Amino acid sequence: MGAPGRSAPPTLALVNVSKSFGAVRALQDVALELHAGEVHALAGENGAGKSTVVKTFAGVHRPDAGEVRVDGEPVAFHGPADAQAAGVAVIYQEPTLFPDLSVAENIFMGRQPRGTLGRIDRRAMHAATAELFRRLGVALDPQQPARGLSIADQQVVEIAKAISRDARVLIMDEPTAALTGQEVDRLFAVTRTLAEAGCAVLFISHRLEEIFSLCHRVTTLRDGAYVATDRTADLTPDDLVRRMVGRDLDALYPKQDVAPGEVALKVSRLTREGAFTDVSFEVRRGEIVALAGLVGAGRSEVARAVFGVDRWDAGSVEVAGRPLPPGSPTAAMAAGLALVPEDRRQQGLVMDMSIERNMGLTQLRALRRETGRAGLISRKVERSRAADWGLRLQLKYSRLTDAVGVLSGGNQQKVVLAKWLATEPDVLIVDEPTRGIDVGTKAEVHRLLSELAARDIAVLMISSDMPEVLGMADRVLVMHEGRLTAEIPRAEATEESVLAAATGRAGTGRAA
Amino acid sequence: MTLLTQSPARPGSGGAGGGGRRLVELVLRARELSILGALVVLVVGTTIANPRFLSGQGVTDIFLNASILVLLAVGQSVVVVTRNIDLSVGSVVGLVAFTTGKFASGGDRNVVLVLVIGVLIGLTCGLVNGLLVSFCRVPSLVVTLGTLYVIQGLDYRIAQGDQISASELPASVLSLGNDGVLGIPYLPIITVVVMLAVGYYLRSYSSGREFYAIGSSPEAAMLAGVPIRRRILTAYLVSGALAGLAGVLWLARFGTVVADAAHGWELTVVAAVVVGGVAITGGVGTVYGAALGALLLTTIGSVLVVLKVNSFWQEAITGVLLLLAISVDRLLALRVTRALKQRSLESTVHHDVPADVAHDVRAEEGRDRA
């Protein structure tokens, strides 16, 4: 793929766009040009303004100043419908589908093939959907409801939607955050095909290696301001990180060597029908143990069962030698367990509640005890604790009373972490702790986890991010189709050995 | 395709195909089939206890009585499918029945004119509800609870303790409520035609599907460019218009109308809709299910009268049915979600066979380049 020609005006462009939300300047004089046939990356830390750029292109936000241009002509998008009409298709980080409607209806909503009298021609719609899926090389049933699809499949549906619209511009906002290696490869192949067919692609990812392997050019934003646009061929990953954070990063994976202490969490032959089978492992104090595997291998399900969110059918869980009753998060918390869930929007935070309230949620009892006023909760203590944690985790916020929903993804994750760290757990289970988080915050989260381990906390980390698994974990447990297939010590853990176990090609590592 | 190919018991029917869809369809149909089953058991059981129950007049009465509730349930389900609710329908029926009665008794009015006026009054109420919910973004529960009282108050103010009696009404109006064609009364005919039309529109038209889209995920609907406000407004207009129509039918059927006619019906309507499988959280259900729910509740009422059971039991049984319906919904939803997750897990595992995917995509790339 050579560099695309520059003679034609860009298919879609931002020209000196600024946008504010209340007092927060989200974008300031940002310029961005997307050309046909080019895959363009947008890089920046969380809160740098990437999502605002996406939403401006998508017609959700309108710029306060500056212009959006299509084929060099200024346009005003009055809503998502206008942007779609201009050929802009957006695939969001968390796909938004209609769970109750069929996959085909999700793809064709509002522009179903019509038959006589303007009726929907269902047969044509299903055939067209099947054809799209065939082109994408996936085996999905057009008539199955979207409810229950994996995130990867939901994205496939979104991509099919974009293709069916003959989109001229495809914008992908962190599409790979929840995908496994295989799924990422599939996505990239499809993306390249689309670009070669003349589509302009904007690609956002926190994984630098993805930006370098897929994209021709990269535009960097920092704190809402335009930094630079470079050809990826002229850039090293270190250059890019420097542009994003404005400084050199310390090591991304600062796991300190700690001599593991006594067993803090012992899981024996744990089974939950339909989710996982016969899972046994231990986590010692001071240790970070990674639970790797493909999405859907049953890792999160194990974490949920251990923490008591779901019941288990057989086996046992012991914390510091004492067995936990099944299905009781209260007992798990009392025993010193904390779970930072995968899906922070739905499980980790109450989005409409303030930052301080969210942080206080896990400590209501403690807040009550401390104040000792007949079971009332002291707002003052709540606030001072929240401010304290905000400082310790370098949380970026304007007021503690702001709703958590207005924070950027990385900062939301910090609030979830604070909420659970405040319970002073002995065992911390984190599910995809850095999913959708920028490089700078990622390093902070890693440093934090490492510090916790150094303070004798046992950490069980579920992660799909291979460098994170290899860099942070003292031991790597690998799951495949609901079973633990390998336990690999740090020294022997390589990308190949972990991937082999995760895809069921057993062999490397000793079987658990 | 004619309207008649849409049989009420088979919504969402289609060709043979995918497993996930079949499962869901089975569940949806199971709801309608189980209501039909309950109806059959009810009717057979009662007929054994009292053979006169199934006499011609008895059945006609049930259908006459059910018609108005079914009409309201059809309108209500359009609103509920969009994740909203319309509690004002009972008041609208009362207002329309009284005002059109007043108008009709003022001279020998044409029945069509009476119907048009009734529907217009209903539309106006629907417009107010719809504007408040869709454009002012006030939660529908609050808006329609408010209009319930406002419209009721208006009705009382107009009535001032007066009542309409059948003897004052023109013959054409009374004939609408009591005569029919080929022995089938007008009321159920009107209701079935309306139900089929609305059901057909919701299923087969692009804009009809958007009602489901909005209820299923408002956010996704916004991003998909669905005109949310317009659709929600339309839903309230439909509900209002049908409530207006139901008001005139009420007048025609009963002749005698006092100001608090249909008082409290809004809750019966919502119960019928939910029993009929329209999810109160939106996005799921059909008008046919809602209609069957309304028919079931009406039949239970008649059965209790025939069996000389205290009318207290009717309300209790309605309540039990409602709870049953909601629990079954919840249980089935969990089951289906789990089954679908399982299925998608299996297919994901299948996707992860690396050679397969790589091959497919490469073949695809080749094809596209060519």
From TrEMBL, chain A:
SUPFAM superfamilies for this protein: P-loop containing nucleoside triphosphate hydrolases
Record carries keyword rRNA-binding: no
Protein's recorded name: Rhamnose transport system ATP-binding protein
Topology of this chain in the membrane: Peripheral membrane protein
Taxonomic source organism: Actinomadura livida
SMART domains linked: AAA (SM00382)
Main location: membrane
Compartments (UniProt record): Cell membrane
Residue ranges constituting the ABC transporter domain according to the UniProt record: 12-248, 258-506
Record-level Gene Ontology MF annotations: ATP binding; ATP hydrolysis activity
Record-linked Gene3D superfamilies: P-loop containing nucleotide triphosphate hydrolases
PANTHER family registered for this protein in UniProt: CARBOHYDRATE TRANSPORT ATP-BINDING PROTEIN MG119-RELATED (PTHR43790), D-ALLOSE IMPORT ATP-BINDING PROTEIN ALSA-RELATED (PTHR43790:SF3)
GO terms for cellular component: plasma membrane
Keywords, in A-Z order: ATP-binding, Cell membrane, Membrane, Nucleotide-binding, Repeat, Sugar transport, Translocase, Transport
UniProtKB/TrEMBL annotation, chain B:
Organism domain of life: Bacteria
Keyword set, alphabetical order: Cell inner membrane, Cell membrane, Membrane, Transmembrane, Transmembrane helix, Transport
One GO MF term: transmembrane transporter activity
Subcellular location: Cell membrane
Signal peptide coordinates: none
GO cellular component, one term: plasma membrane
A Pfam family that the UniProt record links to this protein: BPD_transp_2
Membrane topology: Multi-pass membrane protein
InterPro entries, alphabetized: ABC_transp_permease
Membrane-spanning ranges: 33-50, 62-81, 87-104, 111-135, 183-202, 232-252, 264-280, 287-307, 313-333
Complex formation: The complex is composed of two ATP-binding proteins (LsrA), two transmembrane proteins (LsrC and LsrD) and a solute-binding protein (LsrB).
Function recorded in the entry: Part of the ABC transporter complex LsrABCD involved in autoinducer 2 (AI-2) import. Probably responsible for the translocation of the substrate across the membrane.
Descriptive protein name: Autoinducer 2 import system permease protein LsrC
Originating organism: Actinomadura livida
